[in-house]
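User: Design a sequence. Structure:
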């Protein structure tokens, strides 16, 4: 960029040059992208994006955070690192830098408000002009004590000293905030320039130059030495490039002066122009670019820092088959070692473009980033990949800071994960994990912005980040399991902390954004192969007790429960149940021991014993549980059916849960309402039953989970959402009451304005109260409030809230209290609603071949035994209902555990006697006694007879 400056010494004018090397500057300065000089200081932007300053520093105009004597050697302005700057300029004692996306930073003297910061305090560090952030500024220039800014749309803002009218606001007042020049509005200004105390503006469509400010030396070009407080036309032979018809172009010698660029000195003004007099008028349009004026709104790549784009990559690839030329190697190093260069790359040109960069919009075209990064990193070009890797690893990563100066300095955190190098395990320790460490170390403000940007990512891109750091965690856990020296283990622990913290941030973003990807995409299914989950849970509990924090302590995966799949969570819940049971048993045993010596201490049973009659199973269970203390619910459960010979090793307990839930959910009690369309039940808002029954049902569900038993409970998923403190939604109503939900969805989707006439709704709901119709208000005075386009979402929310919350509040609260009395705690909150549902009722993902595959055999039975082969042939020929009856006969439930068929370990053993005996199930152990039948028909007959008479217990 070639630009004159009024700030040069009067006796020795100087021009600023771009892309040159100054022998007086440090030898490692390859190129400078933009120079700005003043009588008091010098600024330079390095091709890699760093801004240097040196010279007078009386007012802090060097931006180094201090005032003081002159600085004789160039110093990096550290507080601007990472921001991609496109332009810098220097005034009398103040300075400005402009980023690619219009962020304006000013520092130095501010006596007249020339920094535009709404005050007159000097700044020793660069300060962001927030008022210009949204104005799409593309160019900025400085006078001695005033500043002008040009916007993408061709508007001009000025601020600072206005004593000579140099701000163009038709006054001589100073302005401490940027103010748009009113008289230039309606014109598209394409160039501006500031002299010491005057300002120039060029309008390309008319070819005219406007000036305002001090005119004592004729610098305004108005043929007068008067000052001008508002824009005035510069008198000259200027023509617009697309102006008069070519037929008129021979009319006079002054014809054809086309302004190329304007300049302002201290008290002088200059215009560089082109003319068509050297060629015939009929060829004047042959090469328009020769005559077209410069447009400061269009970035000139020759004066910019390097950015990664298709042209640059193609240039590199064209030289990559042999030894890379030094120029190419230098460019690669500059781009990938500079945060500024990467932050200025891949900028969006579509709507919203990068000038709309904000805390909600990164201004980056992520698809372009992915394509270009994959293009530059290819197996066919290893030299380039090695150079990129070295630059990222050795220079960029160590320089990332926790408090970037502007949001534009955060862009690399969203683009770099698209680089294939980060997905190579050999680069995890040197690239991928350091990026994670830098990310989790960001200060709160930067962290908030980055999370907002992650929220805007498309699901595939968001998932790639999740998958990347899941792979890193697996890699690190594998390294730990393989065994490493203590020093390496310490480093691995730190790496693991940072990688998991980053996954934690991504998970939090995913939940905040309403699940960009499904929650199970965070699951690491291989965890049970790499860590001892039970031991991890115990360590987690101990760390909480002893308040262990920091990266030096062993990593406990329980701090990051979102990586646990259903199997791992079930293991955690089982571990917690065993610990709680052991604590309760130990407490009972201590009490019993004390009772031997202290008569006042009563002995207690270490188990929770339920003695029930089949014909009064609900009443007997309620009687025992009402008398039980909270600690009793934590004890192992033992069930005894009166009059039956059976030792409860699990099977009796299974049938107890089956029978009592069937009884409690019977319609004759009127406790629950059955929905025909979904075949699901929900709490009846009108019931005559004691509320303690709901407490009992909740306790039974909790006991079932606590004792690892499946129960039959046809509630919708929303029950488990509420137990986990999640809010119901319209989707939950769609599951339970699809017809009602469909009508509500139609209300929300209706596009016309006549909702009131079409739907005729108000904020009420109609209920059937034992044959009588009852109208209830959803909100206060709801009967008087019609549903319209503006409040329909509120109506739907109120309706859903009524069905699932308000109408059944006391009943659900009793149920939840009973449930949490047994099954409360932190482990339960690790579950997703669907996982908790599967824990309670199991699932129906039957895989009968898997059941056969996992079956064990005892005695003389083995997989190819004739009786066993006949058994499986008969079994696979059974209908689905008969197979489910077999499961009920064998395990006590016709549903399978959350862990699937593989967790059902069926054991078959031979039994004595003849073929007249039936198969016998030991439900406690999933053990089947199978007589040695010699024919398939006999086997089929005896098996069906056994499974169809499966209630009652006797000693086998």
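Assistant: Done.
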């Amino acid at each position: 960029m070639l630009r004159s400056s009024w700030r040069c010494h009067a006796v020795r004018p100087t021009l600023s040059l771009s892309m040159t090397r100054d022998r007086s500057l440090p030898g490692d300065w390859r190129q400078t992208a933009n120079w700005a000089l003043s009588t008091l200081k010098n600024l330079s932007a390095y091709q890699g994006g760093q801004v240097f300053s040196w010279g007078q520093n009386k007012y802090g105009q060097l931006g180094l955070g201090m005032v003081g004597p002159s600085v004789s050697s160039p110093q990096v302005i550290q507080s601007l690192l990472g921001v991609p700057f496109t332009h810098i300029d220097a005034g009398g004692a103040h300075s400005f830098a402009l980023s690619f996306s219009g962020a304006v930073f000013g520092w130095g003297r501010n006596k007249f408000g020339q920094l535009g910061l709404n005050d007159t305090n000097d700044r020793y560090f660069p300060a962001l002009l927030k008022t210009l952030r949204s104005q799409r500024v593309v160019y900025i220039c400085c006078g001695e004590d005033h500043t002008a800014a040009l916007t993408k749309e061709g508007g001009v803002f000025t601020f600072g000293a206005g004593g000579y009218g140099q701000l163009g606001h038709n006054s001589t007042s100073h302005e401490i905030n940027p103010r748009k020049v009113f008289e230039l509005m309606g014109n598209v200004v394409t160039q501006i320039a500031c002299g010491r105390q005057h300002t120039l503006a060029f309008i390309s469509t008319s070819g005219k130059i406007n000036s305002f400010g001090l005119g004592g030396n004729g610098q305004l070009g108005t043929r007068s030495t008067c000052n001008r407080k508002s824009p005035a036309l510069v008198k000259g032979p200027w023509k617009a490039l697309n102006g008069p018809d070519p037929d008129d172009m021979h009319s006079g010698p002054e014809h054809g002066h086309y302004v190329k660029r304007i300049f302002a000195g201290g008290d002088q003004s200059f215009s560089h122009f082109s003319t068509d007099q050297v060629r015939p008028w009929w060829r004047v349009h042959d090469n328009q670019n020769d005559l077209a004026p410069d447009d400061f709104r269009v970035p000139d790549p020759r004066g910019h820092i390097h950015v990664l784009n298709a042209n640059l990559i193609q240039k590199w690839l064209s030289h990559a088959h042999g030894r890379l030329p030094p120029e190419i190697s230098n460019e690669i190093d500059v781009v990938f070692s500079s945060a500024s260069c990467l932050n200025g790359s891949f900028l969006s040109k579509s709507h919203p473009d990068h000038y709309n960069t904000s805390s909600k919009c990164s201004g980056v075209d992520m698809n372009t980033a992915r394509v270009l990064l994959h293009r530059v990193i290819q197996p066919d070009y290893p030299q380039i990949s090695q150079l990129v890797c070295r630059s990222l690893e050795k220079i960029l990563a160590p320089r990332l800071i926790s408090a970037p100066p502007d949001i534009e300095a955060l862009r690399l955190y969203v683009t770099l994960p698209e680089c294939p190098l980060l997905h190579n395990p050999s680069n995890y320790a040197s690239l991928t994990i350091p990026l994670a460490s830098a990310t989790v170390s960001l200060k709160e403000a930067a962290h908030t912005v980055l999370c907002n940007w992650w929220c805007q990512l498309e699901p595939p891109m968001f998932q790639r980040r999740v998958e990347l750091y899941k792979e890193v965690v697996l890699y690190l856990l594998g390294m730990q399991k393989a065994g490493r020296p203590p020093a390496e283990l310490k480093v691995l622990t730190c790496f693991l902390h940072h990688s998991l913290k980053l996954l934690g941030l991504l998970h939090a973003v995913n939940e905040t954004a309403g699940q960009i990807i499904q929650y199970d995409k965070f699951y690491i299914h291989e965890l049970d192969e790499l860590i001892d989950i039970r031991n991890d849970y115990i360590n987690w509990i101990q760390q909480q007790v002893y308040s262990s924090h920091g990266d030096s302590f062993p990593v406990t995966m329980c701090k990051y429960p979102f990586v646990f799949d259903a199997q791992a969570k079930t293991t955690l819940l089982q571990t917690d149940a065993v610990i709680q049971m052991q604590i309760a048993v130990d407490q009972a045993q201590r009490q019993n021991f004390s009772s031997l010596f202290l008569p006042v201490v009563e002995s207690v049973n270490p188990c929770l014993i339920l003695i029930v009659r089949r014909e009064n199973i609900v009443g007997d269970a309620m009687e025992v549980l009402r008398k039980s203390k909270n600690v009793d619910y934590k004890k192992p459960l033992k069930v005894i059916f009166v009059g039956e010979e059976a030792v409860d090793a699990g099977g009796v307990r299974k049938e107890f849960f089956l029978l009592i839930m069937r009884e409690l959910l019977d319609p004759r009690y009127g406790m629950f309402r059955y929905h025909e369309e979904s075949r699901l039940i929900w709490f009846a808002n009108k019931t005559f039953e004691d509320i303690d029954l709901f407490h009992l049902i909740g306790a039974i569900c909790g006991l079932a989970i606590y004792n690892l038993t499946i129960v039959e409970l046809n509630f919708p998923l929303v029950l488990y959402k509420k137990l986990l403190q999640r809010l119901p939604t319209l989707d939950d109503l769609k599951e339970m009451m699809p017809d009602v939900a469909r009508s509500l969805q139609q209300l929300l989707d209706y596009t016309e304005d006549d909702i009131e006439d079409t739907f005729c709704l108000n904020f009420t709901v109609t209920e059937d109260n034992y044959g009588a119709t009852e109208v209830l208000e959803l909100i206060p005075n709801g009967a008087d409030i019609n549903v319209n386009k503006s409040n329909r979402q509120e109506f739907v929310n109120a309706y859903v809230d009524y069905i699932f919350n308000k109408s059944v509040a006391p009943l659900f609260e009793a149920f939840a209290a009973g449930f949490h009395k047994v099954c409360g705690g932190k482990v339960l909150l690790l579950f997703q609603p669907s996982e908790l549902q599967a824990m309670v009722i199991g699932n129906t993902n039957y895989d009968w071949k898997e059941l056969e595959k996992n079956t064990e055999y005892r005695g003389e039975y083995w997989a190819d035994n004739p009786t066993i082969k006949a058994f499986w042939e008969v079994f696979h020929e059974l209908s689905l209902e008969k197979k489910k009856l077999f499961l009920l006969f064998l395990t006590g439930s016709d549903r399978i555990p959350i862990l699937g068929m593989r967790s059902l370990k069926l054991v078959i053993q031979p039994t004595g006697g003849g073929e007249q005996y039936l198969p016998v199930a030991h439900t406690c152990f999933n053990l089947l006694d199978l007589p040695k039948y010699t024919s398939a028909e006999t086997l089929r007959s005896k098996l069906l007879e056994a499974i169809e008479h499966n209630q009652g217990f006797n000693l086998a």
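The chain is about 35% helix and 15% strand. The chain has five domains: 3-291, 308-527+542-556, 565-726+808-841, 729-804, 844-947.
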